[in-house]
UniProtKB/TrEMBL annotation:
Name of the protein described by the UniProt record: PROP1-like PPR domain-containing protein
Residue stretches of each PPR repeat: 9-43, 44-78, 79-113, 114-148, 149-183, 184-218
PROP1-like PPR domain residues: 85-218
Keyword Repeat appears in the UniProt entry: yes
Keywords annotated in UniProt: Repeat
InterPro entries: PPR_rpt (IPR002885), PROP1-like_PPR_dom (IPR033443), TPR-like_helical_dom_sf (IPR011990)
The keyword Repeat is annotated on this UniProt entry: yes
PANTHER family registered for this protein in UniProt: OS07G0661900 PROTEIN
Amino acid sequence: MVEAGVDPNEVSYATVIHARAKRGETAQAEQWLRRMIEAKVEPNVVSYNSLIYACGRRGDAEGAERWVLEMEARGLPARVTTYTAVVDACAKSGDVRRAEKWMEHLLNSDIEPNVVSYSSMIDACAKAGDLRRAEQWHARMLENGVKPNAHSFSAVISACAKAGNLSAAIAHLAKMDEANVSADVVVYSGVLDACAKVGDAESAKQVFMQMQSHGIVPNVVS
């Protein structure tokens, strides 16, 4: 493009950055962002979000945090997906406190978190084996009027399994019916994992039969 005498604009740079980031080539994506700035082309939200998502996918919480702070410093408006990606990066790295910091940052902004945001936060708690926190965030989601989905419930149930709390896992499975949310194979696998943790073969059999009665095909985990 440059060789042809055409100056790249913010869309051109953002497209290259997104493509590099999507392939997991974070270092190259970062280089293109720096080239964009050096060329006096103002980065847009898409450029930064691409880098933040890339960090989120690989659990690079520090990298995701650094990019969102730079984006905010430039006065670019973050989106709910921006903060959710940071929370997700924290979840993947097992940093619950940092995840909560960014979740609170989102809640205190003018942007409303969605079910994906809350699910990422609950995932962070589940990975840390913190059932109390996972349940608190799920309850907070409901209090704020955000409708749960199978992912948010599976995250809580995963925390139950990790804590070896079968009764809580079964209770959350029942709450899915109350919330009119269909359980999927991931949800049932989480409950079965809780059964295995406490060595309750009879409950595992009942859960397995319930799963089959709902037409859910078991996977290698279940």
